[in-house]
Amino acid sequence: MPTAGKHRDLGKVLACWRSASFLVLRPLTMRTLMNLPEETSEQDIRRNGAVLTGANKRSLSDIYEVDPLRDPRWQKLLDQHPQASIFHSVGWLDALHRTYGYEPVVLTTSPPESSLENGLAFCRIRSWVTGRRLVSLPFSDYCEPLCDGGEEFESLIGHLHATGIGQPWKYVEIRPRQESLADTMKKLGFGAVGKYTLHRVDLEPAAEEIFRRVDKHSVQRRVRRAERTGIVEVCGRSERLLKDFYRLMVRTRARHNLPPQPYAWFQNLVDCLGEAVELRLAYLKNIPLGAVLILHFKDTTYYKYGCSDEKFHSLGVMPFLLWRALLRAKAIGSRILDLGRTEDSQSGLIEFKNHWTPVSSWLTYWKFPAEPFRTSSQDWKLGMVKRICAYMPERLLAGAGALIYRHIG
User: Fold this and answer.
1) Which domains does the chain carry?
2) Alpha-carbon span 96 to 409, nearest angstrom
3) What gap in Å lies between CA 280 and CA 234, rounded to an integer?
4) Which DSSP category does 109 fall into?
5) What would the pLDDT profile of 50-77 be if each residue is shown by its tens digit?
6) Is 368 helix (H, G, I), strand (E, B) or coil?
7) Fewer CB within 10 Å, N or C, the chain?
């Protein structure tokens, strides 16, 4: 394609996407979240859809807003709560803030003078392209509400659901891991807007037993082939590894006609998460063949990103890297290897993960106000981006990703 044509393609991307200081703690009111005048009555607020009943009748002044990047009580809650994940971590939230400018906030019923007993984390996203919204959490597979259910859960969700009505927020989106929350979400007026498959490998058995259980052809034989070929694995967080990882990421996303997330996102993950993030790359004669980005939090290891050079797929690079990551997870005491969410349209990726564990669960994302359910394949915006990116060279894809992703979290 001529150079001028390539620049026109980038212009198409830009044209398509063109169509508050942090407080550690402050009382939260419906009026401030909805940007309503002080004289707005409770009746007018409820008339817009924020109907609080039963457990949700907790006084608005009993809900507080916490800055998780500055309030040390948030980390203490994560240390003790069994549902806390890497996506709740201060490092993950800080990376979202540094890369995309999102504002992380936690809602809690715990007053300032006490320890945090619960919390619902979300990000305020302000985009001139896709609108202003509250998401729990962007670019995160899931984000479980950290509460004990019952009154706590309905109070926090009820207040958060009310913030999505009218200005300044277009909608509220919540991404819990537990399917048991479905009835509560429906009762509060949320509608399902996305459904994904989640695979998690049990690491309790011995490594030999786990290897015996994985698919013989797609995992066992390919791991052994990679070992015989002489592939060398290099692990760490160095700048060289990160650059090699990102080149493979750009190449992989280009195969799927999608831009990669910006380099700054991965750099900030390394900077903010430190030892909790690990790059694992496979080399043959100093040529990078494939890479995975692994996260560690408490007793769970997360396979978050994977990328490769398709010319070397026959060598078993990705099964080899994931198996090595699994062994590392067991060595540091992880009990679960989380393989992450998979969209319904990614049949090949679902099959790859099924080779590691036949057990999967559903992830459902919820939005208020509710809207018709759409699969990723029915998303016209995604289809538009893929059609444009199909004609873009890799060097322009990275720039397009830096422009686009902050608007689609």
Assistant:
1) 18-189 (3.40.630.30), 199-363 (3.40.630.30)
2) 10
3) 6
4) S
5) 333 344 444 544 888 999 999 999 999 9
6) strand
7) N
